[in-house]
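Input.
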Amino acid sequence: MPKSLIIHAGFLKTGTTSLQASLHEHADQLLKEHVFYPRVINPHLAVEADHHFAAIALIGKTEGWQDEDRSLPAEPIESWLTLARAYRKFDGISIFSSEMLSELTVENIQRVKSDTDNIPTKVIFSIRPLAKMLPSAYQQKIKFGLIKVSYEQWLEHIFTDGTAASDQFWLRHNHPEVLKRWAAVYGDENIHLVVVDERQPEFLFRAFEQIAGIKTQLSIPERLGKNRSLSIEEMSLMRAINRRFRKAHDWEDYRIFIRESAAKGLTDRSELREGHHKLKTPGWAVKKASDLSASFVSEIESLKIQTHGDLQRLKSADIETGENSFVETIDVKTVAAMFSEYERSKLVRNVPTELLVSELKQRIKNRLNRSLRFMRRR
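Output.
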């Protein structure tokens, strides 16, 4: 089978997590049809369903709030080079998937092409109306401990030119510009844009299969859980945790105990509680986002990329509008759900290997010291 590379590069909050989880779950079956979806990427973790660490290494940043501390080293480029070597070696279809890739500059993208020996490549993006991505993006930042302000304040920041929040958001979400960067390296004809249709949840999977040329039928894995949105009350709790946790703990602690455990206890394994409220987007922000989406559609239509689905659906979004009231108190059942719905095996898998080794050495040392003291008493 001829070598080829499928790069799934975004966009954030458009079904990417479900697609990555499905590819991860079907990796063995895919390999039988000469399709390679790498499972182990980051040397600090056991298994990742996505390839975010390789993407972060290409960008030259690090994970979570650590990136705000410029004195810390970036993710080692070896995280990407290990993956690139595997792609060069494999005879068949290889898949590289991370929505973080939407941040890559033209220079970064050229490196991807060079490091993979110019393997024939297709680049796939999925997209939905910008107004629908706003609340999802805000909640994503809360779950990474990256934001403390209210939704309304955050919206004002991203729609104000020159702010740090605005620069970072539009680096990923100025969709025509992202598409142009990738097209500049791989050519318009190799860029594919899938318009997500929430009325047909399987559309993204079918489109991906068709573009990539794979026979395995992908679907949303049950292990993902509910993966629902946070309520206003739950976001209030998370914001309070973020304010306090960062003062006493580092990112690894947050990732292990909050991001990958407590927060998922809320969104993946419990229903929206009675009396809780969904996040609303102010009307002014919906209008700005819809106007931008309309201009994005015009720009995308002027490109010669491959589109799948109805681009016109991006111009409007049916979402709940209004103002939000974040709370200062919350029911104890929500807190109990947050901190009781973890799985020990997953918690252990998220602990960095070097930390486990260090703890094991200390425990062995303590055990030997206790044994020696006991023997001396005898």
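The beta strands are 4-10, 35-36, 93-97, 121-127, 191-195, 306-308.
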